[in-house]
Design goal:
- This protein has helices spanning 5-10, 22-33, 70-86, 108-121, 144-150, 173-186, 243-246, 321-334, 376-380, 396-407, 434-443, 451-461, 465-471, 488-497, 503-510, 521-535, 539-556, and strands at 12-18, 38-41, 57-58, 91-101, 140-142, 159-170, 190-192, 195-203, 206-214, 220-230, 254-262, 271-275, 279-280, 291-297, 300-309, 319-320, 345-354, 364-365, 372-375, 385-389, 562-563.
- The chain is α/β, with parallel strands linked by helices.
- The protein has three domains: 5-50 and 174-252 and 370-410, FAD/NAD(P)-binding domain (3-Layer(bba) Sandwich); 58-171 and 253-365, D-Amino Acid Oxidase, Chain A, domain 2; 434-563, Helicase, Ruva Protein, domain 3, CATH 1.10.8.
- Strands 3, 4, 5, 6, 11, 12, 14, 15 and 17 form a nine-stranded mixed sheet that branches. Strands 1, 2, 7, 8, 9, 10, 19 and 20 form an eight-stranded mixed sheet that branches. Strands 13-18 form a two-stranded parallel sheet.
- The longest helix has 18 residues, at 539-556.
- The chain starts with a helix and ends in an 11-residue tail after the last strand.
């Protein structure tokens, strides 16, 4: 992956995808498999928006059972299976305990009925998943004693037992997006980050590309394409700013979904579902309040998710200190034995997703159920353009395919058929058995590489880990960055092979350095110096990168009253 902007300016593409989050990246990968000449652009870094800010869950659709939406349930289950097949290094099953308190709708019998119905409706969930460690098991009921063995803090007179089911969990959401981008680039797509689409190019009432601005050096140029897919997430509708073409377009409702990371080692490998204080008003059948989750992730615990209708521009989405305090109080009120403390919070983040209602009432919520597809031929009389505003990371692959199908209706003659993306491994994902791969890697592990570092390489890079290990043979490349398990070779690989343009790209998305806690100022200095060598930064650019990443990490890691998601503001010319 090389950021060669001349290729974008000089060619005409069959398809231009705007937005390098999960949905845009999946669309670019799909389109290359269909044989199209593809360009993919992203205004920030790949996966730096809502995709990276997600709760790192790959949902199998069990909540749709409460809505009676069996089609959506099965579709979500199929997509979870596709991730487990195509990216087994980055996605694995996660067991989740749902405790029951009392009887009737709050009891174990009622819960079991729903869980077993879900199992029956998803009987084919493990089809073509050869690796047993990546298969989703069926529901298992737990006695009161068994629940307390896993979560002794739930000791309450009303506890009657529970059930355990499994969903999917991502090791690194940003790298899962990057796997799609790398897969597309490997098939010939021209991709570039830090390119902002500022206006469409027109031929009468047909979109024929976009005018873009390079957010690194400020230069503007045109990218021409026969068809354009606008998959810019919550930023997508801000491109409809030409009233003579789009009229007075009303932006859809969005929710700011947020969670936080607690610097507390998990007691077990099980997640815990906890009744919160909000209700989904669209459910047909519900046990009680909507669940919140305490989830083991690496050596920390994720807590969430909270939803708030959000009508402001995406860049203004923040987690406020008062909200964080209220969420901690809600968790502690539901289960006092958790005893969460504010100082334990090491990370807070949020992202915007489509929502079902714009109401500010956060106790009765109408959650978004499906992605938004806009065929501009029908809505605005505009050809050559389809917009896709994705709802959940889980649905990225299939919804991207559906958006391409819609757009390719405008292809001259019969458009290329769908590609088998549900079973084609992503970059690094051609793994028959994750356990066997790990055992072989550990058996041949170089003495200079710790088991902890090698495990991280296997999870982040899959079959490509050997390439990074090869780089680690060079002088200085096997050193760890600061006190982390990240190797300097990973930094070099990110800069030379994975289009990391800024320091934050390496720290927050290409490596594990800033994923759960601040890596320390010394680590930032170390990485910035290596990037300076590789990219030829001036000393002023190096210092600006450190300061900008330091500020971003402080906001992410709860060091300031307000915490914001990653931004892509230009650092200016160096």
């Amino acid at each position: 992956m090389k950021r060669v902007l001349a290729e974008l300016a000089e060619r005409e593409f069959d398809l231009l995808v705007i937005g390098g989050g999960a949905f845009g990246a999946a669309a670019a990968w799909d389109a290359t498999l269909r044989g199209l000449k593809v360009a993919l652009i992203e205004q920030g870094d790949f996966g730096s928006g809502a995709s990276a800010e997600c709760f790192k869950m790959v949902h199998g659709g069990i909540r749709y059972l409460q809505h009676g939406n069996i089609g959506r349930l099965r579709a979500s289950c199929r997509e979870r299976s596709a991730f487990l097949r195509t990216a087994p290094h980055l996605v694995k099953p996660l067991p989740i305990v749902v405790p029951t308190f009392g009887f009737g709708r709050k009891g174990k019998a009622f819960l079991a009925a729903g869980m077993y119905a879900y199992d029956a409706l998803t009987a084919g969930r493990n089809a073509a998943i050869s690796d047993r460690s990546r298969r989703i098991p069926g529901t298992r009921l737990l006695s009161r004693r068994e629940v307390l063995q896993i979560f002794p803090e739930l000791d309450d007179k009303s506890l009657t037992g529970g059930a355990v089911f499994a969903d999917g969990q991502m090791y690194n959401a940003a790298r899962l997006v990057l796997a799609y981008v790398k897969s597309a680039a490997g098939r010939g797509a021209t991709v570039a980050n830090y390119l902002q689409a500022v206006a469409f190019l027109w031929k009468d009432r047909t979109v024929r590309g976009v005018r873009v601005c390079d957010r690194i050096d400020g230069q503007a140029f045109d990218i021409r394409a026969r068809l354009v897919l606008n998959a810019a997430g919550p930023w997508a509708e801000y491109l409809f700013n030409e009233p003579d073409k789009f009229g007075r377009h009303a932006r859809g409702h969005f929710s700011r979904d947020a969670y936080f990371i607690v610097n507390r080692a998990p007691r077990s490998g099980y997640a815990l579902a906890i009744p919160g204080q909000s209700h989904d008003r669209d459910t047909l059948v519900s046990r009680a309040a909507r669940h919140l989750f305490a989830v083991p992730w690496r050596d920390r615990t994720l807590i969430g998710v909270w939803h708030r209708p959000f009508a402001d521009p995406p860049d203004k989405a923040v987690v406020e200190e008062g909200e964080l305090a209220a969420w901690i109080a809600e968790m502690n009120a539901s289960h006092p034995m958790l005893a969460l403390r504010r100082e334990e919070v090491s990370y807070a983040c949020c992202g915007l997703v489509p929502f079902g209602s714009g109401s500010v009432d956060t106790s009765e919520l109408s959650f978004g159920k499906e992605s938004r597809f806009i065929d501009h031929r029908r809505s605005h009389g505009i050809a050559g353009l389809v917009s896709l505003i994705g709802i959940r990371f889980t649905m990225a692959r299939s919804d991207a395919a559906a958006a391409l199908d819609l757009l390719l209706e405008q292809w001259q003659g019969r458009g290329p058929a769908r590609a088998p993306t549900e079973r084609t491994p992503l970059a690094g994902g051609a793994i028959a058995d994750v356990t066997v791969m790990r055992e072989r890697a550990m058996a041949t592990r170089p003495d200079a590489i710790s088991p902890e570092s090698l495990d991280a390489l296997l999870c982040n890079h899959g079959t490509e880990y050997e390439t990074v290990l090869g780089m680690a043979q060079q002088p200085g490349e096997s050193r760890r960055v600061g006190s982390s398990a990240t190797l300097m070779a990973e930094v070099s690989f990110a800069a030379t092979e994975e289009m990391a343009v800024r320091l934050e790209d390496v720290v927050l998305r290409r490596t594990d350095l800033g994923s759960g806690g601040h890596p320390g100022r010394a680590a930032l200095e170390q990485v910035a110096s290596r990037l300076q060598q590789l990219a030829g930064w001036s000393e002023q650019r190096r210092q600006r990168e450190i300061d900008a990443t330091e500020q971003l990490l402080q906001m992410h890691h709860a060091a300031q009253p307000a915490m914001t998601p990653a931004t892509a503001d230009s650092l200016g010319r160096a």
